[in-house]
Amino acid sequence: MELSVQQGDIALFQADAIVVNLFEGVTTPGGATGAVDSALDGAISKLIAGGEIRGRAGELTTIHTFGRIPAPRVVVAGLGKRDAFDTEAIRNLAANVIRYLTRPGVTSVASIVHGAGIGGLDLAECTQALAEGTILGAYRFTRHKAPDKDAAAVGSFTIVERDAGRLGTVAAAAERATIFANATNATRDLANEPSNHLTPADIANFAAKLAADTGLECEILERADMERKGMGSLLSVAKGSHQPPKLVRLSYRGRGSGEVDLALVGKGITFDTGGISIKPAANMEAMKGDMTGAACVINAIGAIARMGAKVNVVAIAPCTENMPGGGASKPGDVVSAMNGRTIEIINTDAEGRLVLADALCYAVELGAKAIVDVATLTGAATTALGDICYAVCTNNEDFARRFEAAASATGEKTWRMPMFKEYDEFIKSDIADQKNSAGAKGAGVTAGAKFLEPFVGSTPWVHLDIASVDDIAATRGWIVKGPSGMAVRPLIELAMAMAE
Questions:
Q1: Handedness of CA 173, 174, 177, 183 (dihedral sign)
Q2: Averaged pLDDT score across all residues of the chain
Q3: Helix (H, G, I), strand (E, B) or coil at 23
Q4: How does DSSP assign 372-404, residue by residue?
Q5: How does pLDDT run across 249-292, given as a tens digit for each residue?
């Protein structure tokens, strides 16, 4: 879908459908909605008077114009109560509208910006929410399905702004939103791919192409490179698979030179059987998405480069399968990470933290001044939080608040988990420096974070356990069924904030 911005009067705009809005309780529409109402001889006002349009949140009403204006259809979108309306409501509304209009005969849609007029919200923020919601809400993954000759699709979406003086603000916000949303959808695409179509090598190839397209520096570490660096923790996970492991490093130097301001580290398990500690067969197909953290950080740094942010960022994605082959790691094995710490493997299904350990060490070696890691790390995250938000753990209050602000700005919900020193006991081993599973002690999210903490040292660090939100059971607003792509936009937003 092509998204664009144009100056003009929505009532005179030629599209298969135009979208206006109404707050709950408004009996006489004003602004752009009022102009369309006048052009339709008061049709909207009559429907309001008759109780057919009430402006309630989620309410969508189609009016056929029969030639009275250039567009054959007008959709009146209910905004709900004005005091409860915000940019997240716009994002969800836009997603619902674009799906509602994905029907035969509608290939072009035009809309005003919701919330920036009588709603009193910031114009740029409203525009970004509208554009993001539209692109994210229209997402579908059909790569492996036969073409449906009856399928409907919206090919173009135009944001129409009447005031020429506001056009520059709207256009800039729409461009920013397009970059943010496309990075999220690219992450969804990778997470949707079956593991036989997305091996560690395929992720490395994707990253290399992205680097060529955006001017990023790209380094792919092979098994021998990892052995030379002492990445025994990561390599222990790869031992059972015929697919060679890859460690992807993408670097962006927005300041031209100097230290790495921010490292983004993402777990890239392209399929997770659990290894020798094998998972139950039921729903194991979902484990193709255990590489979502890697997809997040790769696409986030690509978007940061496209934004031209004045910040130095590196993305590191350790990628491998976790398979129960003849050479696979066994419970009770002891391996060494890049920083020399030894790890007793209690459970081979706690493999994500093993690959992240060496990737975090690598980020520290590269001199990162701050680190965020992203991982579908624990089932405990879903137990604790459901699929509404994801977990945040940290060793630095100020840096965590910066990330949480970035997440809030993009409409994503997070929840801080405790990192009390008493939880250090959960990862203590009798025969190694630490162990990779706390067993049945509980506090699984914190235990996973506590395992990772020694590998970042004193570097400000935030750990995101996105396992709770990586695969959504039912569409709601901009969050579509399947891979959500959450954490991508907050990572971009964080980098942009650091640049400012």
A1: negative
A2: 97
A3: strand
A4: EEEE---HHHHHHHTTT-EEEEES-HHHHHHHH
A5: 999 999 998 999 999 999 999 999 999 999 999 999 999 999 99
User: What is d(CA 198, CA 126) in angstroms, rounded to the nearest whole number?
Assistant: 36
pTM of the model: 0.97
Show the tokens assigned to 101: 């209009």
Length of the chain: 500
Instruction: Identify the structural domains of the chain with CATH numbers, from first to last.
Output: 2-180 (3.40.220.10), 193-499 (3.40.630.10)
What element of type H or E holds 251?
strand 246-253
What is the percent of the chain with per-residue pLDDT over 70, rounded to a whole number? 100
Q: Which residue, 455, 447, 456, is CA-closest to 417?
A: 447
Give the span between the Cα atoms of 395 and 148, in whole angstroms: 50
Nearest Cα neighbor of 296 from 412, 183, 379 is 183
Nearest to 99 by CA among 140, 137, 53: 137
- Give yes or no for a contact between 29 and 61, defined as CB atoms under 8 angstroms apart: no
Show which residues are catalytic.
279, 353
Dump pLDDT digits (tens) for 303-344: 999 999 999 999 999 999 999 999 999 999 999 999 999 999
Instruction: Give the integer Cα–Cα distance in Å for 226 and 387.
Output: 35
d(CA 377, CA 380): 9
Q: What confidence score (pLDDT) does residue 451 get?
A: 98
Q: What percent of the chain has pLDDT over 90?
A: 97
Pairwise CA distance, residues 454 & 449, whole Å = 10
